[in-house]
Amino acid sequence: MVRRSAESAPRRSTRFREGLLAYGFLAPVLVLFAAFAYYPLSRLVYLSLYQRNANAFLGGSDRWLGPGNIIDVLSGPELRSGVWVSARFTLLTVPLGVILGLLLAVAADRRLAGIRIFQTIFSSTVASSVAVASVVFLTLLQPETGLWRDVSWLSLNRPGSALLAVSLSAVWQNAGLTFVVVLAALQAIPDEVREASMLDGFGVARRFFRVTVPLISPALLFLAIVLVVHALQAYAQFEILRPTDTAQPLLYKIADPDGVLPLSTRAALSLGLFVLTLVVSFTQFTLLDKRVHYGD
Length: 296
What we know:
By secondary structure, this protein is an all-alpha fold.
């Protein structure tokens, strides 16, 4: 018994040092998460439960609203209208961006002279910021100087086209991101796999759907989740293009550039957006992960 306890003491000491080393490596990440994720989330909860006192610097305290404020906001019309616009914006931008980028990547996955030029052109939208892309499309959609004269795409008279007009810039950027990710996945496919499918008599369409798509499915899963989250959190396009009130997503209502909603309402809407993004991402990963092929 004495020998066993003597032998276990160095092991416990080794595990303790390894544990300290692991926590030392994790400490910077935990600090960053605490500063930029956990604290803002707890602050949102506080702001949704209290009404801020404008004279707090004179010694006043915030007024308690309680969980009823969160329930009222999350069951109110602001959340429903914002979620409805965000959902339509997601359906307009994500599928079109993924399909367009996928087609461009398949077309550019060639060993041809000068193909690097086309690959650079197709991926150039990634280098442009959301603000630059929005300003470009704002110029193109102007009824006075744009491509379609005397057509006000963003006005109250055309509520259906306002969201479509804002979606164009997001589709343009999504296509570039999809192109880069899918092209990298395509170039990682071994040539032996493609040659074997051709020897087996697979045509172009059958080879694409039966061989290529399963092998790049992890990249497509990544793009589906990332682009949906980006669409749910879209703001800059709407802030610059300023469409009609019927085409304002949830994050635009949270930012409230016109100063209409109180801070407690916007904080509760932020909690709703957080839960919505979490549920959508988890649902996507759960449903789509079953169709993803992870090669050895």
